[in-house]
Amino acid sequence: MSDLTAFGLEPRDSPEDDDENELSETVSETWSECVDCEYVGYEVKARLQHSVPLCTACFAEREGLL
Question: Has this prediction a pTM greater than 0.85?
């Protein structure tokens, strides 16, 4: 981690959370949630003419590809 005190930022101690909570927070901050099935993952994204995030399966279902 870089020393950012020169920019007016003070170092903070990270809270003592267990690894599972940290992982779930990281996943929800990094990846989007599908609006249809609520799946959270790397393949969830806004596709073609849909402005809402969809997973691969829900996108295929909406487009009639299944």
Answer: no
